[in-house]
Amino acid sequence: MKLSLILAALATSASSLKTVTFKDATGNNVSYVEKPTFDQKKVDAYVLQTEQIVNSTHMDKCGKCLTAIALGKQAALNGDVQLIPAVLTKLCKMYKFSKTCDTDYGAETTGYDTDGTHAAQTLTLIDDPYGTDGQYLCYYKVNQACPLPELPKFDLKALGWWGDKPDNVTVPKSENKTFNVAHLSDLHIDLRYEMGAEANCTEGGKMCCTPDQFNKGARAAGLQEVVVPAQKYGMYTCDVPPPMIDLTLQTVGQFAKEKEFEFAIFTGDMVSHDVASQTNLANTALSEEAIYHAFKKYMGDVPVFMTYGNHDTFPYGQLAQHKSGYGGYFVWNDQLSAQLWKDYGWIDAEAEQQAIHTYGSFATTTKRGLRVISLDSNLWYKKNFYNFWNTSTDPDPSGLFRFLSDELLECEKTGQRAWLMAHIPPGGNMDNSLAHSTEIIRQIVSRFSNTIAGLFFGHVHEDQFNVWYAGNGSTNTVDNALQIAFLGPSVTPLTYYNPAWRYYEVDTKTFEVMNSHTYYAKLNESFAFDFEHPVEKTIGNFSYLGYPQITNISSEDVNGTAPVYHYEYNAREAYDPDHEWPANAPLNATFWHKAVDYIVNRNETRDLFLKYEYRQSPYVPKCADDNCLANVYCFLSSGTVPQVVECQKNHKGFKKQIYIKRDGTYGDEPEHHHH
Predict the structure, then answer these.
(1) Which residues pair with 333 in a beta bridge?
(2) For residue 469, what pLDDT is reported?
(3) CB-based contacts of 236, cutoff 8 Å, min separation 6
(4) Beta-carbon neighbour count of residue 97 at 10 Å?
(5) Taking Cα atoms as reference points, which of 522, 534, 525, 486 lies closest to residue 611?
């Protein structure tokens, strides 16, 4: 489907409508066409009622939050859905809970990224504002105003999803032969990347290397040039310029011939982390098309199985279930992508139709008989407003989880092995996925553990993994290690990573991973300035680090030289330091359970893990105190959010969830920009 047709179908006629201008995070003017006007008196009345709730002395913060949601629900029932974005925007400015209220809470438009309409539409759907719907909204969306509610209980077997787990499932016998599969993730092409732009920006959401970003201190001091100029192949504070996309996929394409990759998986995020005012429908679709085209150009006839990331939708992170009545906002993505996937020969007509009607999710069988099931993880992402309705009464509002269990049930009946791939890992920490949704995933993975041969995700940008255990996460032993999830490293260096990708050696019969090989590019060695020897400079009251230009550089390399992808490590060698693991045994959950023990308890293995996590960038952190070690343990050992909760509650060293910062210290918020 042509992009122009999509935009024409979604664009609203601008005739006789008012054009509104506001300043975005960078200080630039943003103009958009306002939808038909509404009753400002009603908006003011709803704002006043909300103020009264906030100022009440008779409710705690949870009660206030739930009551405000109930007011929003009543407004929606009164037919005032179109007013809610204006109410939210005014409240945002009044209470200063964002610097970008217009883009955060404004009405729906294709011109920039805003969530106001989707928040309002969610209010029409929620079952009980004072029940788990409201409590989850207050926990995840309003700074944990309410505690995390008790997990809803669903018996999927009783609901008819499956019967008893067979006792005699026969796993195919290995013939000790392997084939190779590539895994790439988080390409994040930045179509607005500009060589020479500011890479050390401080304003505008800190999405550097774009024309409108700047360093506030430098500008105030009158510095005429940028502090650090963006280089041709990327920077540690920016997303990926098109030349680095080409270089990466050209490299993988060359390896595809040498290593005879039978297929590749891409676990999501094609679109950049740009500021909301610069994130629009056209840029989202163009970025996706550019990535699909590049994969086909360089991978040739190698099938590439895709999945969406949280950035690969518009608005960012939003996706409505079909039965919500709002799914029409998002179907453009499935129509565009599924047709291209089929045209490029990656999926057949049946999988194309699945993808169109199942949120871009599909199942396909490889030439060796492996069933690859690709899922859209936005349906368990906490930033998606549409995941917060009927949380206690419906385990599967989208139908995606039943699609998955039905596929696995069919595989079980026929003795077929399956891989599951998606973007956002269902566990690891509390940042990304929803407790009630990932509990359903846990039940599915547990029920079909004899059928699933591997789980594959991306999103975290780090080279990581999760061990999935049977049970609720309170007891993690070698005997109940159930599955392993491979989390692919990102190609984007954002923030402070070297670009990387990997390939797997896969058993030809069991389809288990026998080894994992990672390649990385030393981004700092591609710079046209001397990154290793910064010079402190001062102008007025502003001090900064400058980098001397490399002398004797050719004119074509004045903005950076092409980096090379080097072999970094293989998992079997790195995480079996005592060489105890049998050579013909797969890298299964038992192997990775032992690896976690090595990482947490051996300094040498932990240092190696951290080095590989950041792909040996100049910003590899340290981790030695009890709280950091507990954070690492809980991340690596928790497949779902409820298991994270159990781990953090029961681990004696855990104090709070932390994030490793650029300088190696710890902070309460992640530094890399997740929009």
Answers:
(1) none
(2) 96
(3) 199, 493, 494, 495, 496, 497, 523, 524, 617, 618, 619
(4) 13
(5) 522
Tell me the pairing of strands 29-33 and 19-23: antiparallel
Joined tokens for residue 456: 């594959």
pLDDT of residue 511: 98
Q: What is the pTM of this model?
A: 0.93
Select from 407, 465, 455, 438 the least CA-distant residue to 609: 465
Structure tokens at 75: 């407004």
Residue ranges of domains in the chain: 3-141, 178-191+245-514
Q: What span, in angstroms and rounded, lies between the C-alpha atoms of 229 and 216?
A: 15
Token representation of residue 5: 């047709």
For residue 614, which amino acid is it? Y
Least confidently predicted of 28-42, 305-319, 608-622: 28-42
Cβ neighbours of residue 168 under 8 Å, at least 6 residues apart? none
Please check whether residue 377 is in contact with residue 456, taking contact to mean a CB–CB distance below 8 angstroms.
no
**Do 571 and 512 form a contact (C-beta atoms < 8 A)?**
no
Residue type, 320: A
Of 593, 341, 402, 642, nearest to 483 (Cα)? 593
One DSSP character per residue, 341-380 reads HHHTTSS-HHHHHHHHHTTT-EEEE-TTSPEEEE--GGGG
Contact 112, 277 (CB under 8 A): yes
pLDDT at 38 > cutoff 70: no
Fold of the 178-191+245-514 domain: Purple Acid Phosphatase; chain A, domain 2 (3.60.21)
Q: State which H helix or E strand residue 275 sits in.
A: none
Q: Report the C-alpha gap between 621 and 601 in whole angstroms.
A: 17
Q: Which of 454, 563, 452, 566 is nearest to 504 (CA)?
A: 454
Task: Give the per-residue pLDDT at 14.
Answer: 36
Residue 566 pLDDT exceeds 50:
yes
Closest by Cα among 470, 471, 468 to 484? 468
601, amino acid identity: N
Separation between Cα atoms, residue 84 and residue 88, nearest integer Å: 6
* Site of tokens 């719907």: 133
Surface-to-core class of residue 484, CB atoms within 10 Å of its CB (0-12 exposed, 13-18 middle, 19+ buried): buried
The amino acid sitting at 672 is: H
Q: Give dist(CA 660, CA 622) in Å, integer.
A: 8
Tokens of 396: 């599967």
pLDDT of 548 over the 60 cut: yes
H-helix or E-strand containing 525? Answer: none
